[in-house]
C-alpha cells in the first residue's frame, strides 16, 4: 500500500468481528497502512466527539475509508456508557462533512433466491439524503382559509402561490431542496455508476411536480453531460423514468443496476429491495462524495443482542459478510486509486473466498433458513472466518 486507508473502529459485536477480520483475513496478507480512528462510543465521549470529525476529514484527505458499525446514543445508552452528551449519529456527521450519497447493495449468492425470481444481479439503491419531507414544515388548519407558499428573497423579490382555499379543516406541508444538494447527489451517482460499471436509473414524479421534481431531472440531465463520454466508453447508460414506471420495471428486471431515488422514495425502496434480497447481514453500504471520496461499511448496526450474549461468554454466530465486504471494497478502491494491482487482486480473492465458503454451505445462523439447494452447516463467527481464511489461502497460493 502507498496511501493509508482511513480505518474507523466501532462498537459492540461488530467491534469484535472487526478485530477478528483484521487478524485473520487482512493483516496476514496485506502490508496494511491505515490512519486509525477509534469511533467506539467510549472514545467519542472522551474526545467530545472530535474524533468523528477528524475521521471524516481524514476520509476527505485520503479519499478512502472503512468504518465499523457504531452506536448512535439514545437515553438508554446515556446511562449504559455514562455519557457526557447524547452524541449525534457518527454516520450523520461523516455524511455531512463528506457531503455524500449512500449506496446500498446486497451481496447475493446462488443458493439464496431473491423473493423476486427474475432478479439475477444485485440492485443498488442510491438515496438522496437531504431535504424534502425529512426537513419539512407542517400545519394543521382547523377551518376555512387560504394556505399560501411565500418566498421573500434577500434582494427584495417576492414570490407567492396559493396552495389551497380550504373550505374546512385540513393539513398543509411545505418542503424544500437545494440545487447544490441535488447536484452533489447527481455527481455521486454518476461517479459511482462509472466506478462500478453499472447502468444508472433515476426516477421522480416530474409529470405531476412540474417545478420541484422537474428541477431534479433537469440537474441530472445537466450533470450527465460531464459524464456522457465516459458512460459511452464503458457501454453503460443513464436512464430517466417516472417513479411508478421505475417500480414496475425494477420488479420485471434482472437487476444489476443503480437506482437513484429521491429521499422518500429511497427510504421506502431500500427496505423493499433489501428485504426481497434476503438478509440485512448481507447488505453493504458505501458513502460516495461528489468529489469522489469513498467510505465503506456494513448496512447493519452493532448487533447489540449478540454482543450481550458474547459478554456472557456465549459463542455467537454473527454474520461478518457485510463488514468483510466493507474491507474488500475499501482495499479495492484504494488499489484502484493508487494503481496497485496486487491490492485489487487481494480484494477480489477475499470476496471470492467468502463466496466459496457460502457456496459450500458453511454459513452463520441467520442464513440457514434462507438457503435452497445446499444443505447448510451453521457455524459460529470465528469458525466462519477461519473457513474463509482457509479458502483465501488456497486462492492466493
Ligand atoms: P442491528 O445491529 O442491525 O441488529 C438488528 C438485528 O438484525 C440483530 O439483532 C440481528 O437479529 C440482525 N442482524 C443484524 N446484523 C446482523 C449480522 N451481521 N449477523 C446476524 N444478524 C444480524 O440493529 P439494532 O439492534 O437496531 O441496533 C444496534 C445498534 O447499532 C444501535 O445502537 C444503533 O444505534 C446502531 N446502528 C448503527 C448503524 C451504523 O453504524 N451504520 C446502523 C444501524 C444501527 P437477531 O437478533 O434476530 O439475530
Ligand atoms: Mg426506511
Task: Walk me through the structure.
- There is one protein chain.
- This protein is an alpha/beta fold and 397 residues long.
- The protein has three domains: 1-108 and 280-397, Isopropylmalate Dehydrogenase; 113-131 and 178-277, Rossmann fold (3-Layer(aba) Sandwich), CATH 3.40.50; 137-174, no CATH class.
- The protein is 45% helix and 21% strand.
- It has 14 helices and 16 strands.
- The chain has helices spanning 12-26, 41-46, 50-62, 75-80, 90-98, 179-196, 212-234, 243-252, 263-277, 304-311, 321-338, 341-359, 365-368, 381-396, and strands at residues 5-9, 34-38, 64-67, 101-106, 123-127, 137-141, 145-152, 158-166, 170-174, 199-204, 238-242, 257-261, 283-288, 294-298, 362-363, 377-378.
- The strands form four sheets. Strands 2-1-3-14-13-4-5-12-10-11 form a ten-stranded mixed sheet, sandwiched between helices.
- The longest helix is centred in the middle third of the chain and has 23 residues, at 212-234.
- It is globular.
- The mean pLDDT is 96.
- NADP nicotinamide-adenine-dinucleotide phosphate is lined by residues 69-72, 91, 280-281, 297, 300-305, 318-319, 366.
Amino acid at each position: 500500500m502507498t496511501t493509508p486507508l482511513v480505518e474507523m473502529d466501532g462498537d459492540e459485536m461488530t467491534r469484535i468481528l472487526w478485530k477478528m477480520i483484521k487478524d485473520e483475513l487482512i493483516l496476514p496478507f496485506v502490508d496494511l497502512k491505515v490512519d486509525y480512528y477509534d469511533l467506539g462510543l467510549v472514545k467519542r465521549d472522551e474526545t467530545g466527539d472530535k474524533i468523528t470529525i477528524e475521521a471524516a476529514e481524514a476520509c476527505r484527505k485520503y479519499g478512502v475509508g472503512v468504518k465499523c458499525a457504531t452506536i448512535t446514543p439514545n437515553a438508554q445508552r446515556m446511562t449504559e456508557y455514562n455519557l457526557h452528551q447524547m452524541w449525534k449519529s457518527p454516520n450523520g456527521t461523516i455524511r455531512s462533512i463528506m457531503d455524500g450519497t449512500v449506496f446500498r447493495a446486497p451481496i447475493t449468492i446462488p443458493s439464496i433466491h431473491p423473493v423476486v425470481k427474475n432478479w439475477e444481479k444485485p440492485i443498488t439503491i442510491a438515496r438522496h439524503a437531504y431535504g424534502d419531507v425529512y426537513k419539512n414544515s407542517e400545519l394543521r388548519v382547523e377551518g376555512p382559509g387560504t394556505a399560501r407558499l411565500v418566498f421573500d428573497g434577500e434582494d427584495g423579490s417576492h414570490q407567492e402561490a396559493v396552495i389551497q382555499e380550504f373550505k374546512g379543516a385540513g393539513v398543509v406541508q411545505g418542503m424544500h431542496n437545494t440545487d447544490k444538494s441535488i447536484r452533489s447527489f447527481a455527481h455521486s451517482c454518476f461517479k459511482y455508476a462509472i466506478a462500478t460499471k453499472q447502468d444508472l436509473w433515476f426516477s421522480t414524479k416530474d409529470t405531476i411536480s412540474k417545478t420541484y421534481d422537474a428541477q431534479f431531472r433537469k440537474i441530472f440531465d445537466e450533470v450527465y453531460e460531464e459524464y456522457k463520454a465516459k458512460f459511452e466508453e464503458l457501454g453503460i447508460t443513464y436512464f430517466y423514468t417516472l417513479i411508478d414506471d421505475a417500480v414496475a420495471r425494477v420488479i420485471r428486471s434482472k437487476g444489476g443496476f443503480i437506482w437513484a431515488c429521491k429521499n422518500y422514495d429511497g427510504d421506502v425502496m431500500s427496505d423493499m429491495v433489501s428485504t426481497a434480497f434476503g438478509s440485512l447481514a448481507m447488505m453493504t453500504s458505501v458513502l460516495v462524495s461528489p468529489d469522489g471520496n469513498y467510505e465503506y461499511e456494513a448496512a447493519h448496526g452493532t448487533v447489540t443482542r449478540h454482543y450481550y450474549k458474547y459478554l456472557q461468554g456465549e459463542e455467537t454466530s454473527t454474520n461478518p459478510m457485510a463488514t468483510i465486504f466493507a474491507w474488500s471494497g475499501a482495499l479495492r478502491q484504494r488499489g484502484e486509486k493508487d494503481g496497485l494491482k496486487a491490492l485489487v487482486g487481494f480484494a477480489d480473492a477475499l470476496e471470492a473466498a467468502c463466496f466459496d465458503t457460502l457456496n459450500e454451505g458453511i454459513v452463520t445462523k441467520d442464513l440457514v433458513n434462507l438457503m435452497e439447494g445446499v444443505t447448510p452447516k451453521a457455524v459460529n463467527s470465528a469458525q466462519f472466518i477461519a473457513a474463509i481464511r482457509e479458502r483465501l489461502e488456497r486462492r492466493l497460493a
